[in-house]
């Protein structure tokens, strides 16, 4: 966290990224983490987590009016997820590019959904759609004590 001499705390951009239950069941955890790691984002939180129904509902509350909302909540609580915080400049938009389009058949090859999925209802991974929602979702899924502040020795080799 950087603090200007006056004014508010400027926090590095963070995204909430989640490997959904199908990604965990299919053994894609390492593959997905590798893509964010090798891109150069910094991991700030990580846990395997069985999602309570009320949390799944809150996470997707903006979609509550959609016909697929019930199925979506059932999907997210159908098995453990891997909940992650990734940090870095532009991480929210870049994570969405790494993840690919919502409909995996429309997702480009080379993206996670493009490479590993065929249906919107089993699209393997979640990424926040704005920095504001990133912070909202991190607040929903992580306790403050689960967010790890650490210095990555590799950073000078990634950023000038
Ligand atoms: P995302 O930001 O790319 O994950 O997409 P959205 O925020 O629009 O939707 C959230 C999640 O709801 C998606 O990742 C899908 O798992 C699911 N979803 C979205 N649209 C549909 C749909 O038309 N049918 C079904 N079954 N699930 C959907
Ligand atoms: Mg979304």
UniProtKB/TrEMBL annotation:
Residues 12-149 form the Nucleoside diphosphate kinase-like domain. The keyword Iron does not apply. The active site is at residue 126. GO terms for molecular function: ATP binding; nucleoside diphosphate kinase activity. It catalyses: a ribonucleoside 5'-diphosphate + ATP = a ribonucleoside 5'-triphosphate + ADP; a 2'-deoxyribonucleoside 5'-diphosphate + ATP = a 2'-deoxyribonucleoside 5'-triphosphate + ADP. Its cofactor is Mg(2+). Keywords: ATP-binding, Kinase, Nucleotide-binding, Transferase. Belongs to the NDK family. This is Nucleoside diphosphate kinase. It comes from Klebsormidium nitens (Green alga). The lineage of its organism: Eukaryota, Viridiplantae, Streptophyta, Klebsormidiophyceae, Klebsormidiales. The chain holds residues 84 to 243 of 243 of the full protein.
